[in-house]
Amino acid sequence: MDAITFRYLISLAVSKNLEMHLMDVVTAYLYGSLDSDIYMKIPEGFKMPEALSTKPREMYSIKLQRSLYGLKQSGRMWYNRLSDYLRSKGYTNNLICPCVFIKKTTFGYVIIAVYVDDLNIIGTHKEINEVIMLLKGEFEMKDLGKTKFCLGLQIEHMHNGILVHQSNYVEKVLKRFNMDKANPLSTPMVVRSLNVDKDPFRPCEENEEVLGPEVSYLSAIRALMYLTNCTRPDISFAVNLLARFSSSPTKRHWNGIKHIFRYLRGTVDLGLFYSNNAKEGLLGYADVGYLSDPHKARSQTGYVFMNGGTATSWRSQKQTLVATSSNHAEVIALHEASRECVWLRSMTQLIMTSCGLEENRDPTLIYEDNAACVTQMKEGYIKSDRTKHIPPRFFSYTQDLIKANQVEIKYVQSNNNTTDLFTKSLPTAIFRKHVHSIGMRHAHKM
């Protein structure tokens, strides 16, 4: 189960007033049956039969009947074992989200979200108890109660919704890099200079010293990327930018990492809040930071999709093509956002129909702040001197989705486009406005 699906299930549980319960399978990999012959050396301490004791132990091997921890296929074998059992009990799943099992019951529905040996059960109190008895009858299980900590995420249940944050993880990371007593900052990145030569995040220059192995640059990037992908979209752009220099980081880049740490120091308990008063439905924003990487003439794609007013899916990524104009870059960004939208609609509609809930057939709104780009998408590709160099596929895909009534592109003013958060460094006031608009809140203020 991926993080996006898990965040959507949390928002669904909040909106439908469902409970979340966590179960853990004891020695899960040992339940799997192997689909091929695997032999292993005889382990130390294994008592050999007397009939075989005349020859050296090295001449014999053991054929495995079940999967073991350490085998490459153990995870797959465990998934097959669990999947076959749940399907035999009336649960359904789909390739769109294969680790989500749903069963429609007489009184409602129940959802089991699987992540290796952790099973998140979402449903009413009665249905959850029935599932617990069902699973305990087949596997040895640990009942961990209401879901409060899962996949490294802290889940706080409140009267008006659920807050998902990683304050414990943030504190561990800050302590690990000796930044736990640093002075906090209000944004994760300084506002960059338009002068290319003065940009603090320019690539390593010829006469510049590269950081040695004593500076854990890669480890810091890895820790920050985990935060970014789970609960901290507010640092996405800064982390994406600094990750580009992992092969040859300099002191300037390390100062950028420490800047993020100082921002995290002041926002330790910031997380995503899913409110039970919010209106359901997907809503997207797309934008581009034109020439965000002036050194290689590349722009930055950014998009965010919210369900119930809180972010569930987001991305900040440098474009692989060199855009020749801001309009060209915006078209590419909309193309990427449309691709994500198709999967999100498939995933949400599958879950809703499997639960017997009424699904929303209305097109998903994607807001864009380039008026020319919005017009082009609505009226179709028109060849002109300004667009003839843009591959038509970037227009055609989104336009086909518009014709199929899956997507609707609307114009929004630039100062109200929350995706600026994912495409550029921002002043404090604007940054905080966009952070609040994607549903991020502090735990101590709830």
From TrEMBL:
SUPFAM superfamilies: DNA/RNA polymerases. Signal peptide: none annotated. Pfam families: RVT_2. Residues 6-190 form the Reverse transcriptase Ty1/copia-type domain. GO terms for molecular function: nucleic acid binding. InterPro entries: DNA/RNA_pol_sf, RNaseH_sf, RVT_2. This is Reverse transcriptase Ty1/copia-type domain-containing protein. It comes from Centaurea solstitialis (yellow star-thistle).
